[in-house]
Amino acid sequence: MVNLGTLVQYLALQGGPQQQQQQILSGDQFNMSLITETTYTLPSLPYAYDALEPHISSQIMTLHHDKHHQAYVDGLNAALKGLVAAVKANDLPAQIALQPRIRFHGGGHINHALFWANLAPAGSEETNADKVAGGLVSAIEGVWGSMEGFRKEFGAALVGIQGSGWGWLVKDGQTLKIVTTKDQDPIVGGEVPIFGVDMWEHAYYLQYLNVKAKYVENIWNVINWKTAEERFLGERDDVFEALRAALKF
Amino acid sequence: MASTLLRTSPVIRGALRASGAIKPAVGIASTTFVRGKATLPDLKYDYGALEPHISGKIMELHHKKHHQTYVTGLNTALETIAEAESKGDFTKAASVAPLLNFHGGGHLNHSLFWENLAPASREGGGEPSGVLKTAINEDFGSFDTFRKQMNTALAGIQGSGWAWLVKDKQSGTLGLVTRANQDPVTGQYVPLLGIDAWEHAYYLQYENRKAEYFEAIWNVINWKTVGSRFEKA
To answer: What is the spatial distance between Cα B82 and Cα B74, in angstroms, rounded to a whole number?
Structure first.
């Protein structure tokens, strides 16, 4: 059964450090022969389409969730169907040829699922970092000096992305890092994704047009620090376990 | 099949087309460089002139804001390099390479793009003629096959990027290439026709339905420009 946990491990095999790849292979966590067809479905948003107004418009949220995320889900299902057939046919070239599509659509599915869950309506308790994310806030202050210093650096990383991509706060061992990824590359190495911001133009263009710095400034109003704290306190597997539960396999 | 045709006799066709003449690189008429400074070229048509295929609002933002940002970014990158060079700080100069590629590519790509578009009521749309038409038929099988392959290439771009009809300087044949983000077409390929597949090129009008944009854009392709680029290449 290909579930989200094994998908994450599968994607890590392609891009993760050698040592981790070996662990995954030897740890019997991922077994190609266990692959059977499964169908991913679009997770519901944990809030209404207009709940992030005025920072992210209802129109953007509707298109982003119903159309864009759905297209990644469909693309992933089609690619995995092809993969299962290629595995059963022992067709190695076909399996390899499918990797970019699995990475792109699988990454798109994972990234958006994590993204929806790390956003919340402005003014809700979840967006109050000091109240709901004490551990993470002190860790951020430890690395960047202050929340303001962190927001500045994260914002600069987001605005500096060339083309489509994402910015993430990740936990790497005992430290925090800001990383940017291109297109739909997912965070599936050893790092724990804490929260991500979608910098594809479809995430903001209808509302902010070319002024992406304004979108970046406003996104801070709708970051779900409660989710961020939970991911920070957990391990990598916990994050994807929570995600798997949210996707109701 | 077009792919078969493409491989029949590229060397012979290339030799025929080159016919011994060494031509200068294709120039971009309206891209002006004053003392190394890039400037935003004017459009040869009004912002609304490509409607209903590309909206006036998209054209205005795309030209005035997006292209301008690449021009500004390119000039900043060039200044940083010149300054670093004057101080002998080549590490610093080299570190600017990604910005130079991104903004320089963005400036080149958009300059070529505006010129290979034209209003449907004027030169835009239709089909190529002359030697370009012959070359497309030879290398792709037919104009229709070429168009379909270009649209498939555009639809397959993962993220932001461009698709180009190019001439391969080595073989002399036509081909299709895609480029990520603002990577320019350089090296063995001469860019003839570029289509911008960044979301900002279509999203205000077509939203997620990018296939509709890729269909509509054929109504505003300036084949005269593409043909003249091909003849000079």
So the answer is: 12
